[in-house]
Design a protein that fits this description.
Number of helices: 18
Number of domains: 1
Number of strands: 10
Radius of gyration: 22 Å
Helix content: 40-55%
Low-confidence stretches: 1-16
Structural class: alpha/beta
Largest sheet: 4 strands, parallel
Mean pLDDT: 93
Strand order of the largest sheet: 2-1-3-4
Length: about 425
Amino acid sequence: MTTTPNSARAAKDVEKDASMRKQKAMMAAHYDRLTSAPETGEKVCDTFVPGNLNELIRCFDLVNNLPEVNAIQSGLRRLSGGYVMEAEKIGHSEDVCTYVKSDIGMMAKGNLAPNGKPFPVPDVLLLSYTGCFTFMKWFELLREQYKCETIMLHTPYMGDGKITPNMIEYMVKQLKDEVIPKLEKISGVKFDIDRLREYLKQSAKAEDDLVHVLQTAKNKPSPIDSYFGGIYYIGPIFGAFRGTDDAVDYYRFLREEVDQRLAEGKGPVTPDGDMGSERYRLVVEGPPNYTNFRQFWKMFYEEGAVVVASSYTKVGGVYDFGFRHDPDKPLETLAEYCLNVYTNRSLPMRIDMLLNYLDEYQADGLLINSIKSCNSFSAGQLLMMREIEKRSGKPAAFVESDLVDPRYFSAANIKNRLESYFQMIEQKRANSRAVA
């Protein structure tokens, strides 16, 4: 008697999860293009997610390769643990970022992309420094490995919580004097600012739709999970597709899919199908664990916990506070984008941002997933947690794992802490009812 309902539910899951399959197909096509570069003659630019200049890179017909995304892919495929240990055998410390060690270990093990083909040797390394010192050391290692041109765009830190005209001017000068001339020389393509403007127009369209999708979580029930589901949503725009027609099409498709779920009063799609009743609404600070991604997510949706906003889905751009790439100010807007990413924000700015999310998304509390090897996120998180608890009056909790090192994911420990946290929320609700 249960066969028909289960079959019907499976069909609905496939239909409603179409955006995830579309995103995976886009990523697979990109890896095929990337690994075919030696045959096609396309040149490759290795860069990073926070503050990446994908629109500018495309102006020179360069293919974007993102080492941190490659590490995430290795984590999701349960390969990163072996890569991390290989890097430690070579001599890298246990305390080094595991994205770095996964990448270095992968190179030592054949440097294979998710499609099983070798990654090409990059023609240029382009680093837009945005608050993570480790990225600079990572690029030194890559430069030593590949012996190719390295370009750095230095982004001033927003220590005072605002972008000044001097910051923009400083970055635009670097773009004009260093970045663009070197990219012209490496690619053999002359810079065309009108071409850049067209890509920036496409970026702004996709950014509008992404913000709309993320802000649907203000509804009850939320039709999306902005942390676990959000990982899939941000993939194209934070990676190799921003500024492309493919990104515009994907985010329009995603928006329509999420709006349909909203109209039907449905909650998020999970790996096990539609989530049941929404019991807890959370804001999450910090990246997820990728080696046990599904298991981690399951601990939330089995309890009816939905993440309605997260800082991690802003690591490649904080769009929901108004920023859009502006084709009328092409170089200035690239500078502003780099300055605005989450990792370049001071602790007071991060605290204010999370407090805003707790309020606007009517969340029950804050959860921090502290990443052992990521100082860029983890430094100051306990201070942030205490300050947010004090100012919001809402409960906060702290769990610990790592990005792509399975040795630092303790399922029993995390599950116990989450269960205790949900009990805290229930107690807070009971106290509020008693006072009322």
